[in-house]
Design a protein that fits this description.
This protein is of the alpha+beta class. The protein contains 6 helices and 9 strands, in the order H-E-E-E-H-E-E-H-H-H-H-E-E-E-E. The chain folds into 2 domains: 60 residues, no CATH class; 143 residues, Hotdog Thioesterase (Thiol Ester Dehydrase, Chain A), CATH 3.10.129.10. The strands form 2 sheets. Strands 4, 5, 6, 7, 8 and 9 form a 6-stranded antiparallel beta sheet that branches. A 3-stranded antiparallel beta sheet has the order 1-2-3. It is extended. The relative contact order is 0.13.
């Protein structure tokens, strides 16, 4: 009985050692990258029988061909390259722009709508909505040349209204690409960041933002 108990203890100990602390092995794919890794363990199925248990991790690593698509800049459009810059045409803000924007958004704040109230403010006159300036500036950035392909807005970062825009002011946008990379979570999608500064006819910055766009390659 003593020998049988010792053998049983060894079997239990052996299973504990290899199942609780499995051996991790890596399978290397092209260019030495880890395409997947397996967790391997030896497990006892009986007093004198042993089998090799293999469990694969559920989350696979991105395939190498997808990585090649993500880092390929050979077909990048000129307007998507870092350093590409331009200045838009000008646009004069009219009273009708403010009235229309107020009606569309419901923003009837007196500083935009009431000339008498605005005259007593620090600005001395009515000012355009910040969102009006933003929307007009973004409209100035686009043209109708479809040969450049189609990009869509993904969002806006660091939006700052840096100065007032009055009725009769003419604004234009200075645009520079400061970031351009393939989206790490969406193969075949390029994400472009355009630093945009909106200035008036006096050269004063009235709005700044980072405009994020995406393009399907």
């Amino acid at each position: 009985m003593g020998g049988f108990r010792a053998a049983l203890f060894f079997c239990r100990h052996f299973e504990l050692a290899f199942v609780k602390w499995p051996i991790n092995l890596f399978h290397r794919g092209p260019a030495g990258k880890h395409t997947r890794w397996r967790r391997n363990a030896l497990k006892w199925t009986g007093p004198f029988r042993m089998r090799f248990v293999v469990n694969e991790v559920r989350q696979p690593v991105r395939q190498m061909k997808d990585r090649a698509i993500m880092t390929d800049d050979t077909d990048i459009q000129p307007e998507d390259r870092v350093g590409y810059a331009y200045t838009t045409r000008g646009r004069t803000i009219a009273e009708s722009d403010i009235l229309l924007h107020a009606g569309q958004t419901g923003d009837q704040f007196p500083l935009h709508m009431d000339a008498e109230v605005a005259a007593g403010s620090r600005y001395g006159q009515r000012v355009a909505h910040g969102t009006l300036t933003l929307s007009i500036a973004l409209g100035l950035k686009y043209d109708t040349d479809q040969t450049k392909g189609v990009r869509i807005s993904y969002g806006y970062d660091r939006v700052r209204y840096r100065g007032p825009v009055f009725i009769g002011d003419t604004i234009r946008a200075h645009v520079e690409v400061t970031g351009s990379e393939m989206d790490p979570r969406r193969p075949g999608v390029r994400r472009v960041v355009e630093k945009t500064e909106v200035v008036n006819q006096r050269g004063e910055t009235v709005l700044s933002l980072d405009h994020i766009l995406i393009r399907w390659t």
